[in-house]
Specification:
This protein has 118 residues and is mainly beta. It is built from 2 helices and 8 strands, in the order E-E-H-E-E-E-E-H-E-E.
């Protein structure tokens, strides 16, 4: 396990609050948020999950009582990424803003399962 001295990934206060609420609801308060970046065609897909196991290749980011796990291979592509939480009448969920990945017109960064049809 590697402790990150620089925040590769930053969570907004709203994302921290929502993540803590989800972890509480699911009885996973001792888990970490795992952020995976998976290449898909011309873009990437982000996968978020709760994980209790930390591997030696993980970079651990601590923020406001929440841990985020990023694998060493994904870290360079995630540097400067922000995770926010948006909620409106149509849908709600975590939104990832990654300055390293070209955007294609929506908050997800493109080539994802958000339903935007890219």
């Amino acid at each position: 396990m590697i402790e990150s001295k620089v925040a590769l990934v930053t969570l907004t206060p709203l994302a921290v609050d929502k993540l803590k609420a989800v972890m509480e609801e699911q009885g996973e308060t001792d888990s970490a948020l795992r952020l995976l970046l998976v290449p898909m065609g011309q873009g990437v897909q982000y996968m978020l999950s709760l994980d209790k196991e930390v591997t030696e290749d993980d970079i651990t980011i601590h923020q406001d009582g929440v841990r985020v796990l990023v694998d060493r291979d994904s870290a360079p592509l995630l540097e400067g990424t922000t995770i926010d939480y948006h909620e409106d009448l149509m849908r709600s969920g975590f939104v990832i803003d990654n300055p390293n990945i070209a955007k294609s017109g929506c908050a997800c960064g493109g080539n994802c399962s958000c339903g935007a049809g890219h």
